[in-house]
Amino acid sequence: MDDSATNNDKPLHPVWGKVGLLAFGLCILAFLTAIDRPEWFHLRPASGTAAALTLAAERP
User: Fold this and answer.
1) Is residue 34 a contact partner of residue 40, using CB atoms and an 8 Å limit?
2) From 8, 37, 38, 54, which residue has the greatest number of CB atoms within 10 Å?
3) With a threshold of 0.70, does the pTM exceed it?
4) Are 21 and 12 in contact (CB under 8 A)?
C-alpha cells in the first residue's frame, strides 16, 4: 500500500507559515494606522459640483 496517498500528518510547507504571518502583521499594521487617522474616513464631496450642492443645502 502506498503511504504517501494516505499520509495527512505532513506539515504545511514552511513558506506558507511565513507568508501567513507576514499577511497577519500587515493587517495589524493597517488596522493600527487606520485607527490613528480617523480623518481619512470622513465623507467628502467627490466633485466640485457636489461640494457646491452641499454648501447650497446648508442653512445659513
Assistant:
1) yes
2) 54
3) no
4) no
For residue 4, the model assigns a pLDDT of 56
Name every residue whose Cβ is closer than 8 Å to that of residue 48 and which is 6 or more positions away in sequence.
none
Contacting residues for 17 by C-beta, under 8 A, at least 6 apart = none
Q: What residues have CB less than 8 Å from 45, skipping those under 6 apart? A: 51, 53, 54
For residue 13, what is its C-alpha cell? Answer: 510547507
Task: State the amino acid at position 58 in one-letter form.
Answer: E
For residue 23 the three cell numbers come to 499577511
Distances (CA, A) of 16 to 1, 12, 28, 42: 30, 7, 18, 37
**6: which DSSP letter?**
H
d(CA 42, CA 44): 6
